[in-house]
Amino acid sequence: MVFPSPRSQPQEGDGLLGPRMSLANRSSHPANALLMKRVAAYVHDLFRITLFHIPVFIFIVALLIIFQEEGRIVAALFAFFGVSSFLIPWLYFASAESSFRQATKGKRAEGFIVVDKAGRRISFCRATLRHLLFLLCSLTFGLVFIPGLFSKKGLFLHDYLSRTRVVPSTPATPGFSPR
User: Where in the cell is it found (predicted)?
Assistant: First the structure.
C-alpha cells in the first residue's frame, strides 16, 4: 500500500504551480542559474561592444561639431552612427559564435559555447539568424525570455527558432579557454 506524503496536500500559501519556492531554491534551480550566467555573459559582451563603440561616437561628435552648418553631412553622420550601432554588435556576435571558439568573450568567461541541435559549431549565417532573432525577441521587453525559465534546457525563443543551444564548454571542446 502506498501512502501519500504529508506534503502532497496543498498548504496555505501554495501557488497554482505547487509549493512556494524560497529565493534560495529559485536561484539554485538549473534553468535560473543558466539564465543568470547567460545574462552575465551578455552584460560582459555589451561592455566590450560599448568600449569599442565609444571612439566611433567621439569621432561622429567631432565631425558634427566641425560640420554643424551643413545639414546633409549631419544627417549622413547620424545615419552612419545608426548603422554602426547595428553592424558592430552583429559582427561581434555572429563572428564570435561561428568561430572555432564557438562563443563570445562573455560566454567563454561564463563557460558556455553555442552549438546547433547536433552539438556542432554553427555557421556564420546561423549565427546571424540567431542574432537577428535575439534582437526581435528583445523588442518585447524580455517577455519572450520568460518561457526559457520553464524550459528544462533553458532554451529561449531565439534558441528554438535558430535551432541552436548554449551549452557548458568542457576542456574537450575545441577552442576551450577558461577565461
Answer: Cell membrane
